[in-house]
Amino acid sequence: MNALSVLRAGTFPGAPPIALPTAIKAALRQGAWVVFNLSGGKDSSAALFAAMPMLDALGHPRDRRIAIHADLGRAEWDSTAQTVASIAARADIALTIRQRQSGDLFDRWNQRFEAGKARYEALSTYNLIGPWSSASLRFCTSEQKAQVIGPYLARLLAGETIIQVIGIRRDESRARAIAPDWKHDTRFAANGNRAGTRMMIWHPVIDWSTADIFAFHEANAIPLHEAYTRYRSSRLSCRYCVLQSLADQQAAASAPSNQEAFIHLVELEARSTFSFQPGRWLADSAPHLIPASLTASVARAKEDADERRRLESTMPHDLRFQKGWPPRVPTPEEAARIAKARDPLLRRHALENRFPHGDDVRGRFAELIAAKSSGARQPHAPPRNLS
User: Fold this and answer.
1) What is the pLDDT of residues 356-371, one digit of tens each?
2) Which of 74, 103, 167, 212 could serve as 208's disulfide partner, Cβ 3.0–4.6 Å?
3) What is the pLDDT of residue 192?
4) What pLDDT, on the 0 to 100 scale, is given for residue 141?
């Protein structure tokens, strides 16, 4: 198989083959630290228990293996912490839990919307920005997990080679279908840096199927999260994930411990007028859980979302936000259309209209373009009138 050696997880009968890339094998033989990223989900625990006996067979020292979990705060199922602890204990491996210091994922979604409103009010962005992450903008994963774990490991194990074991699989999605077996990770410790720290990522169960994963757990009595066993979810992620299927949203909503989070997120849908997922409102996944007052707010938000899209469609398409925005100053007629479209949206979100006329809009665009040309930071709009 070219650069791959294939071993079986010998002490766990019935396991599918796992791939050991040559570069990972060499690093292990040289005593690299192995860090198992545990989410509480089936794939991360399978990666742990499949890899452990293989590491033993290679003579890799157990005291150079640790597990780590990124705690997502209110976005996390209540039972996830205990599930992760049970998995680490069963594997007899030390567990570290880390969390983003500037707030959990619910905070981050709210912060994104508040920051987006401020930018929209200042005409520093063209369209109103919603709170949610998405398949193409997965700051939830990068900020809540990678940016929490990576820098911590680079500090903790400075000067070492660090292999992060992550349980992703190619049959999960189109994007992951082309994922490599392993890769260098230079985000937090550039290879060959002054401290000598080198980071790698290894996906040992990347070619396993979902059926393989569940069979492996059953054959070896590895604990599964209640999301699978009690609520019949197909996968574990946040309580409510922007990539979640409708069935999994409904499974999550059926757990009493998830219902407070459900209401919190539906309230943000109503307040922001942005649906949790493109084309699907989280509120619609379990409408029976929503109080009447919030149901009415969601209905208004849906109407306002339609109106927002209609208004924004009247604005010049070639002036939409892009790298290096804005590309030019709008014509007087275009600027008048922009001012007209923005006015009801600003009022809907209780924002000040600092650029009510076409001439104001043109002046703001000219100011932004001048700042861009000079290399200066984007200028702030005039402050709110507090009188």
Assistant:
1) 999 999 999 999 999 9
2) 212
3) 55
4) 82
Last residue of a domain, one of 227, 257, 286: 227
Query: What's the domain count of the chain?
Result: 3
The answer to whether the Cα torsion of 97, 101, 107, 110 is positive or negative is: negative
Q: Which two tokens stand for residue 113?
A: 């919307």
Cα angle: 104, vertex 105, 108; to 5 degrees: 90
**pLDDT above 60 for 7:** no
Strand 198-202 relative to strand 182-184: parallel, antiparallel, unpaired? antiparallel
Please state the pTM of the whole predicted model. 0.89
Query: Can you give the length of the chain in residues?
Result: 387
> Any residues with CB less than 8 A from the CB of 261 and at least 6 apart, and which?
74, 75, 106, 239, 240
Phi, psi at 331, each rounded to 5°: -70, 165
Residues 294 and 318 in one domain: no
The alpha carbon dihedral of 41, 98, 137, 307 has a sign of positive
Report in angstroms the alpha-carbon separations of 46 from 91, 127, 341, 372: 11, 43, 52, 50
Q: Quick one: 54 exposed, middle or buried, by C-beta within 10 A (0-12, 13-18, 19+)?
A: buried
Each residue's pLDDT tens digit, 175-190: 888 999 999 999 998 7
Domain that holds residue 177: 4-227
Q: Are residues 107 and 49 in the same domain?
A: yes
